[in-house]
């Protein structure tokens, strides 16, 4: 009877754990254009049926036009689950990030830039990130001021991510932590791109807060012909969910779903 009672309690505990699982759908580099009206309607409807939350990992627009963000906002009306996003380099092309934010942010759409949002028992922290290279080939803060400024941008993005994750830890307990990025935090998930462009696809500095804060998984885009999955030196799962890569990998629809 004792063994049966113990087994029963374990099965109940496992059932409760399953009840609290969250299905995270993630995609990056959707590059919405002004001519895309109606193109994304079925996509967002289908994703809403498959997941509890959608992550958009940068390059929401194709050329950084506010009008492109307005098209995306209209298309997202077909998405019935919360949407969490970060901007990408394409979204800065015309230096209108504030206009893009204004066009997109709503009760159901959260655009992160060094802050976080909580959905159920999962805390999502996000930044765009920046380049700088990986591991021993990471660019150091030495030489011309232009080089130092480039490196400083990556440092600042890493600090913003760390601060967001630290606030999650201090203000909330027992949350699973997910990081949303555009640039890659590890080299593994950009492999497939020409090595010459690795320094412009991400930076190892972004991996430091992932390891320090016990993040469960991180999602990014930007590397269109990279590698789907990797992990940091301390075992944090990292997923490159660039839409072109997901298409190349045979995902239909082009979205990656992780259950946590």
Characterize the structure shown:
The chain has 7 helices and 11 strands. The protein is of the alpha/beta class and 260 residues long. The protein has a single domain, classed as Metallo-dependent phosphatases (Purple Acid Phosphatase, chain A, domain 2). Strands 5-6-7-8-10-9 form a 6-stranded mixed β-sheet. It has a 5-stranded mixed β-sheet with strand order 4-3-2-1-11, with helices on one face. The longest helix is centred in the middle third of the chain and has 27 residues. It starts with a helix and ends with a strand. The N terminus is likely disordered.
Shape: globular
Q: Biggest sheet: strands side by side, in what order?
A: 5-6-7-8-10-9
Residue-averaged pLDDT: 93
* Alpha-carbon distance between the two ends: 33 Å
**Structural class by SSE content:** alpha/beta
Number of strands: 11
Helix content: 25-40%
Backbone CA Rg: 19 Å
CATH architecture descriptor: 4-Layer Sandwich
Give the DSSP E fraction (strand runs of 2 or more residues): 15-25%
Q: What is the string of helix and strand elements? A: HEHEHEHEEEHEHEEEHE
Low-confidence runs: 1-18
CATH homologous superfamily assignment: Metallo-dependent phosphatases
Number of domains: 1
Q: Could you provide a short overview of the structure?
A:
It contains seven helices and eleven strands.
Secondary structure topology:
Layout: H1 2-19, E1 23-27, H2 41-50, E2 53-57, H3 66-75, E3 83-86, H4 97-104, E4 109-111, E5 115-119, E6 122-126, H5 145-171, E7 176-180, H6 207-212, E8 217-220, E9 229-231, E10 237-240, H7 243-248, E11 256-259
Parallel strand pairs: 1-2, 2-3, 3-4, 6-7, 7-8, 8-10
Antiparallel strand pairs: 1-11, 5-6, 9-10
Helix pairs in contact: 3-4
GO molecular function: metal ion binding; UDP-2,3-diacylglucosamine hydrolase activity
Keywords: Hydrolase, Metal-binding
GO cellular component, one term: membrane
């Amino acid at each position: 009877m004792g063994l049966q009672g113990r087994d029963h309690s374990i099965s109940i505990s496992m059932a409760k754990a399953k009840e609290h699982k969250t299905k995270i759908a993630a995609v990056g580099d959707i590059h919405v254009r002004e001519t895309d009206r109606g193109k994304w309607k079925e996509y967002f409807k289908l994703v809403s049926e498959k997941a509890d939350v959608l992550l958009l990992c940068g390059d929401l627009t194709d050329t950084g036009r506010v009008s492109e963000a307005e098209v995306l906002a209209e298309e997202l009306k077909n998405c019935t689950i919360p949407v969490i996003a970060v901007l990408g380099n394409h979204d800065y092309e015309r230096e209108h990030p504030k206009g893009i934010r204004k066009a997109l942010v709503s009760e159901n759409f959260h655009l992160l830039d060094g802050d976080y949002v909580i959905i159920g028992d999962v805390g999502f922290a996000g930044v765009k990130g920046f380049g700088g290279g990986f591991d021993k080939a990471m660019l150091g803060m030495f030489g011309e001021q232009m080089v130092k400024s480039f490196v400083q941008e990556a440092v600042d993005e890493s600090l913003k991510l760390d601060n967001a994750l630290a606030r999650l830890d201090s203000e909330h307990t027992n949350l699973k932590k997910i990081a949303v990025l555009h640039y890659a935090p590890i080299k593994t998930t950009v492999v497939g791109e020409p090595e010459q462009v690795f320094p412009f696809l991400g930076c190892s500095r972004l991996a430091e807060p992932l390891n320090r804060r016990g993040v469960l998984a991180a999602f990014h885009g930007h590397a269109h012909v990279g590698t789907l999955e990797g992990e940091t030196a301390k075992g944090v799962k990292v997923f490159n969910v660039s839409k072109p890569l997901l298409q190349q990998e045979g995902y239909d629809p082009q979205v990656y779903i992780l259950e946590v």
